[in-house]
Amino acid sequence: MERGWLQGEGFLLCLILYLLLQERGDTFAINCSGFDQHGVDPAAFQALFARKAFLPVTNNNDPTHVNISFTLSAILEVNAQLQLMTSFLWLNMIWYNPFIRWNPEECGGIRKLSIATENLWLPDIFIKEFMNVDHTPVRLMAYVSSEGHIRYDKPMKVTSICNLDIFYFPFDEQNCTLTFSSFIYTVENMILGMEKEVWEISNTSQNLIQNKGEWMLLDIHQRMVKMTVGTNQYNQIIFYVAIRRRPSLYVINLLVPSSFLIAIDAVSFYLPAESGNRAPFKMTLLLGYNVFLLMMNDLLPDTGTPLISVYFALCLSLMVLSLLETIFITYLLHLVTTQPLPMPQWLNSLLLHCTGPRKGCPTAPQKGNKGLGLTPAHLPGLKEPMTLVGKVPGPQEAGLNGCPESTRTWQEDEAQKQHLVSLWVQFSHMMDTLLFRLYLLFMATSIITVIILWNT
Ligand SMILES: *[C@@H]1O[C@H](CO)[C@@H](O)[C@H](O)[C@H]1NC(C)=O
Ligand SMILES: *[C@@H]1O[C@H](CO)[C@@H](O)[C@H](O)[C@H]1NC(C)=O
Ligand SMILES: *[C@@H]1O[C@H](CO)[C@@H](O)[C@H](O)[C@H]1NC(C)=O
Ligand SMILES: *[C@@H]1O[C@H](CO)[C@@H](O)[C@H](O)[C@H]1NC(C)=O
Q1: Signed CA dihedral, 370, 372, 375, 376: sign only
Q2: Is the keyword Transport in the record (predicted)?
């Protein structure tokens, strides 16, 4: 009984094999006898070539499966103004054509043939973001295998629209999409698939993009979607191409010079306000900065407001502020040395408090000036105030000199005035230091804010 069952199974197997072979034999569409001696016979393909206008299916309800992949070989340009990314890629497509099979044993072992693509039905795969005419070279060839698989590769220069966000320029990353879809075939007629895993596409592209251009490829992701238009559904494959800008060019040409200028501007606060050099110096810096901005304008993206523009505007306003501060201090110094007003009591006590041994407010000007080798004696028309002040309250000294009363009162008046001037000068220096510190604080906070924004 067991044996009979086995026999039955063997018979069934033979039957199936026979049927399969029968079917295979029937569907060899191409008679390739003689190919091994006389080369390919064009007559054998005439029937196939005549069908190229129609979808290669035996049953109209069967969809054609087209598997696609691509290799990104260069990122040529990213245009922020037009929101375009120009890249170069090799598109690979594989599909099955049931009318093109032959038996390799009959044909001297020929397993694949190349056929000019104008003789074949080609899938109408296009990239939805494509914003240019297709410059694909004509007269490309496709490889056809004996099982009916057709492999078609074509190079494409793709100018695709991409939503570019340049806020973080030059430290920006972009996520551009390439959506592959059939132009007219709905899901009933064409189904798209992946020819390779997406990590393979990403890896080969990364290895292939050898140019050290502005952009580097980070990663490629993929998603399959069905797009519905009216009652029709279309198969789509969306590739997300993540790219990152190499910022070194912009760091060297934009950020470093600008930081140097702003640093020099900050340091120039140490130029003595009395010498009158500070304002011209700052003005020159401002001029230099404007020239720098003009020259660097074409390196910046033309649209949107990247953070770097805010940074430049900030640097410019810091310079303008510091120039204004210098003008103010110079004016103050001029005012107090020529026509000192009586000092309000509160200001006087504040000054005394600040110049006292416990320093709770901006540095005492004398001390700061000593550090720079400058004393108020450098002021035009002003004598050393400390010595004068020290001299004034000595009535014995005046008596010793035996000066007349009028000279004494004049001298006292003069000393009083000098004392007042020196107090005012002290006050101006205090103001200068205070404003300088405010400036530094503002500069530090704004630059730290910009850097934090850049890092997020
Ligand atoms: C293929 O063509 C040759 C002549 O070119 C013919 O003799 C042969 O029978 C054909 N084979 C089939 C399977 O049609
Ligand atoms: C397309 O890909 C699918 C799944 O990876 C595979 O089953 C099918 O054979 C492929 N088709 C062609 C024509 O390579
Ligand atoms: C990408 O390819 C390189 C060699 O070309 C290999 O070392 C690496 O492991 C691959 N990465 C992935 C994710 O497969
Ligand atoms: C790009 O965008 C898509 C969809 O918004 C997202 O799934 C993908 O993770 C993004 N890729 C990167 C690298 O940010």
Answers
A1: negative
A2: yes
Atom of ligand 3 nearest to the CA of 199: 13
Residue nearest to atom 6 of ligand 4 (CA): 240
Distances (CA, A) of 67 to 8, 153, 220, 239: 41, 12, 17, 14
Ligand 3 centroid distance, CA of 209 (Å): 14
| pLDDT (tens digit per residue) in 313-363 | 999 999 999 999 999 999 989 988 888 788 888 888 888 887 765 544 554
- 122-150, pLDDT tens digit by residue? 999 999 999 888 888 888 999 999 999 99
From ligand 1's centre to the CA of 33, what distance in Å? 6
Q: From the DSSP assignment, how many helices (H) and strands (E) are in the chain?
A: 13, 10
152 bridge partner residues: 93, 142
Helix (H, G, I), strand (E, B) or coil at 49: helix
Q: Tell me which of 30, 31, 37 to substitute to probe ligand 1's pocket, judged by most ligand atoms within 8 Å of the beta carbon.
A: 31
**pLDDT tens, position by position, 287-317:** 999 999 998 887 787 777 888 888 999 999 9
- Give the number of other CB atoms < 10 A from CB of residue 151: 16
d(CA 263, CA 321): 14
Superfamily of domain 26-246: Neurotransmitter-gated ion-channel ligand-binding domain (2.70.170.10)
Give pLDDT, residue 325. 93
* CA trace torsion 30, 36, 41, 45 (10° rounding): 20
CB-based contact 211:87 (threshold 8 Å): no
| Peptide bond before residue 170 is cis, with ω within 30 degrees of 0 | yes
Which candidate, 330, 331, 220, 211, places its Cα nearest to that of 278? 330
Q: 130 in helix, strand or coil?
A: strand
Domain ranges within the chain, ordered by starting residue:
26-246, 250-455
- How far apart are the CA of 42 and the centre of ligand 3, in A? 44
Ligand 1 atom with minimal separation from the 41 CA: 5
N- to C-terminal Cα separation, the chain: 78
- Read off the tokens for 92: 């690979």
Distance, CA 441 to ligand 2 centroid (Å)? 64
Whole-angstrom distance, CA of residue 362 vs CA of residue 344: 19
Q: Whose CA is nearest to atom 6 of ligand 3?
A: 203
The rounded distance, in Å, linking the Cα atoms of 178 and 287 is: 46
**Residue 416 in this model has a pLDDT that exceeds 50:** yes
